[in-house]
Amino acid sequence: MTAEGSFCLVLHSHLPWLPHHGTWPVGEEWLYQAWAHSYLPVVDLVRRLGAEGHRDVLTLGVTPVLAAQLDDPYALRSVHDWLGNWQLRAQYAATRWQRDDPLLRDLAAAEYRAAGHALAGFATTWRHGFSPVLRPLVDSGVIELLGGPATHPFQPLLRAPVRRFALRTGLDDTARRIGRAPRGIWAPECGYAPGMEDGYAAAGVERFLVDGPALHGDTHAGHPVGDSGVVCFGRDLEVTYRVWSPKAGYPGDAAYRDFHTYDHPSGLKPARVTGKQVPPDGKRPYDPALAAEAVARHAADFVATVLARLRSLRDRHGTPGLVVAAYDTELFGHWWHEGPAWLEAVLRGLPAAGVRVTTLRGAVDAGHVGAPVELPASSWGSGKDWRVWDGEQVSDLVAAGAAVQDELLALPPQDPAVRDPARDQLVREALLTLSSDWAFMVTKDSAADYARRRAKVHGDRFGELAGMIRAGQRSGARGRAGELRAEDGVFGHLDARGLVS
Question: Would you tell me how many other CB atoms lie within 10 Å of the CB of residue 372?
Fold first, then answer.
């Protein structure tokens, strides 16, 4: 450990499973925008740092449902088409803006070049999916990879057998794609209920993330949970919220590109934030020089913030401390256009300032582990409790999810010697019904109708297959399962025989 202490950046990459249809504001457009503007530039940054000899650059969580989409042949073809369309839209914008502000003409040219760079990188590096890109970074120690349970469920609301199966399926999925199961996970929504650490230990999980309030703000080190030996790390909110908070943060600076203001004919975003109360038609054109100045200023501020935090922790505890900052990967590039540039400036600036940049695994190896703790029920959502996923607004979804689990566990036992594709699809539909994304979208009023529809579709499919299985309609159930499998081909290796009550 250095005298100043250690910094660990954790990025969480997740989008819900999106079937092969749909347009903005829901459906595949979510995936392609995040792929183009976040996953491509962030991975490019990590690969460049790795080529320079850097190791333990950051901890990257990739949920199994996202990994499946980033490896899916349909999605690979479609995002390539999307990138080409991005370049065509930039050409069209250049034509539209010929007589407009020079900044707009420059923006169109920059978008054209960015799309071309993305197309070239995608064709040469990503053409076979994300896993072949990710595995060398994991094998060489450039990053630590976090996994998670299949379909990103809010684990505290799962029956114990379903929770075990979802976690095992998710870890196995990562092992199939990367060659090994991850030893750490980003628990979906940082959701925790007392006792879950025992399930983690049984599955080979050695570390996981919680939100800072679950540790009463004592995030200067990881802490074993009870006597399980599993170490939890807490987000340092004092530092994390410097970037992205419920009320403020760097991305809202007037110089940065405005995410919400579109030029609808081209689909590009030509404005800078300008001011929080400025309406879209009053926004000024995006100026990359102003944005670059803001990136440098905010990166320097963040480095200074981390340094000050580490020094205060050293003074308080008498030993070098740890700062864990954790964000959605999609913040960098998708929600915050300048995010990847800021990220690079920080990852280079912290070591220059005497801070050890590491991973959760590296933090354990460096001795950043404190005394055992008993954790309360918690999440990283509003109130730091479960209200987002178990509140009044989503009581119908919670009840439906509980009913699906109870019916699943009450079905006649499966012959352990024979794999049944109808059972496999039945469990797949149950897990997709239980995704935490649906409740989040409803509670936050973000595509709530879409979320309710998706939850109902999967729940109805589950009910249909369950009825056939109970009635002994084996041939009909397998035929229907094949149809559903062709529509929604996630986790084809899922074996329902692993679900044991």
Answer: 13
Beta strands 143-147; 58-62: pairing state? parallel
Mark whether 404 and 346 lie in a shared domain. no
What region does 117 belong to: left with phi over 0, alpha with psi -120 to 50, or beta?
Answer: alpha
φ, ψ for residue 496, nearest 5 deg: -65, -15
Residue 320 and residue 5 in contact, taking contact as beta carbons nearer than 8 Å: yes
> Residue 150 has which token pair?
């299949």
Residues 468 and 497 sit within 8 Å (Cβ to Cβ): no
- CB contact at 8 A, 115 and 86: yes
Residues involved in catalysis: 189, 328
What φ, ψ does residue 165 adopt, rounded to 5°?
-65, -45
State phi, psi for 22 to the nearest 5 degrees.
115, 150
DSSP result, 403-445 = HHHHHHHHSPPP-TTS--HHHHHHHHHHHHHTBHHHHHHHHTT
60, β-bridge pairs: 11, 145
> What is the spatial distance between Cα 218 and Cα 195, in angstroms, rounded to a whole number?
20
Average pLDDT over residues 71-92: 95
> The domain that contains 450 carries what CATH number?
1.20.1430.10
Q: Are residues 55 and 157 in the same domain?
A: yes
Q: Residue 244: inside a domain, yes or no?
A: yes
Query: Encoding tokens for residue 383?
Result: 């109130």
Parallel, antiparallel, or unpaired: how do β-strands 223-224 and 231-234 relate?
A: antiparallel
Q: Which two tokens stand for residue 487?
A: 């529509």
Task: State the residue range of the domain holding 407.
Answer: 391-498
Please tell me the number of Cα atoms within 13 Å of 170 on its side-chain side: 36
How far apart, in whole angstroms, are the C-alpha atoms of residue 207 and residue 183? 7
Q: How far apart are CA 495 and CA 490, in angstroms?
A: 12
Count of domains observed in the chain: 2
Tens of pLDDT, residue by residue over 451-470, are 999 999 999 999 999 999 99
Model pLDDT for residues 197-226, shown as the tens digit of each residue: 999 999 999 999 999 999 999 999 999 999
| Secondary structure of 170-220 as H, E, C letters | HHHHHHHHHCCCCCEECCHHHCECCCHHHHHHHHCCCEEEECHHHHCCCCC
- CA 331/CA 343 separation, integer angstroms: 11
What pTM does this model have?
A: 0.95
Residue 283 near residue 271, CB atoms below 8 Å = yes
- Scan for tokens 């349970």, then name that residue: 149
Do residues 406 and 344 share a domain? no
